[in-house]
């Protein structure tokens, strides 16, 4: 499933090893896959793979991927369905791709960017870099269930940062997006979000510890077993963020429609704690 204003990269993987990410910024393709080192995605260790076995073409919006067999000697299959020599086939997320006796996997890697607290100059940097990535855009809006990376120049305690931490989304600097857009080859990995220059500077507030934005899976269970009732008041969007965050962290959450004595007593009897 794709976010309305975002896309994904296509990964070609051999088990846990990523052999290539498509598309390559600045290149329309098609991208060759084969045993020879000159292929865009090189697959070694199996002589049943032709030197240039097949080619892959990413759609203009980044959402489709099609292959063309290049007359390979031992053939190509998609999900165990044989592709005719010189024939084409569409690939979807999770498809198995057989080159001769070698079986690879095709996967989506979400790349849906949300930015928060950027200066005008940094916003322009991120938007320009995103424009070089096929089908990918950067937005100030958090796409719940879709956003893959939060872009910040400096760590600030905002609802978007809390959502990123709860979702386990990497928090990266504008330079990280620039480096992604500067990739020159399919086999080139994405930059490490924690590398120098790729990570936002730490907050200056004493109550926000350094490195707090690091991805930590244990946050998903921070409130596991807790029953929390969010009291009425404030903006509806803020309450929605609160409910989403607490749910992501494992709590059973309800919104208290009223704050009268009877309603509060009912929630207390059911074992709920209250959140303002």
UniProtKB/TrEMBL annotation:
One of its GO terms (cellular component) is Mre11 complex. Its main location: nucleus. Keywords: Chromosome, DNA damage, DNA repair, Nucleus. GO terms for biological process: double-strand break repair via homologous recombination; mitotic G2 DNA damage checkpoint signaling. Residues 191-211 are annotated as: Disordered. SMART domains: FHA. It comes from the Eukaryota. GO terms for molecular function: damaged DNA binding. It holds the Pfam family FHA. SUPFAM superfamilies: BRCT domain (SSF52113), SMAD/FHA domain (SSF49879). Residues 31-83 form the FHA domain. It is found in: Chromosome; Nucleus. PROSITE patterns: FHA_DOMAIN (PS50006). Belongs to the Nibrin family. This is FHA domain-containing protein.
């Amino acid at each position: 499933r794709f976010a309305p204003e975002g896309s994904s990269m296509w990964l070609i993987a051999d088990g846990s090893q990523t052999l290539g990410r498509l598309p390559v910024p600045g290149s329309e393709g098609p991208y060759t896959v084969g045993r020879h080192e000159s292929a865009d995605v090189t697959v070694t260790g199996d002589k049943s793979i032709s030197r240039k076995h097949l080619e892959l073409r990413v759609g203009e919006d980044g959402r489709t991927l099609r292959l063309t067999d290049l007359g390979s000697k031992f053939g190509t299959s998609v999900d165990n369905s044989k592709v005719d020599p010189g024939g084409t086939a569409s690939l979807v997320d999770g498809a198995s791709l057989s080159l001769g006796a070698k079986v690879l996997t095709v996967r989506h890697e979400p790349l849906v960017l949300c930015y928060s607290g950027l200066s005008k100059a940094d916003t322009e940097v991120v938007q320009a870099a995103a424009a070089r990535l096929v089908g990918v855009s950067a937005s100030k809006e958090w796409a719940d269930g879709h956003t893959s990376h939060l872009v910040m120049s400096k760590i600030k305690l905002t609802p978007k940062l809390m959502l990123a931490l709860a979702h386990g989304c990497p928090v990266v600097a504008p330079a990280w997006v620039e480096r992604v857009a500067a990739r020159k080859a399919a086999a080139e990995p994405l930059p490490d979000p924690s590398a120098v220059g790729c990570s936002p500077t730490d907050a200056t507030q004493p109550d926000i510890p350094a490195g707090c934005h690091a991805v930590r899976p244990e946050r998903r269970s921070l409130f596991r077993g807790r029953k929390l009732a969010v009291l009425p008041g404030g903006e509806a969007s803020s309450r929605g963020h609160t409910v989403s965050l607490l749910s992501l962290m494992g709590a059973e959450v309800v919104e208290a429609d009223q704050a009268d004595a009877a309603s509060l007593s009912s929630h207390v009897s059911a074992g709920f704690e209250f959140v303002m």
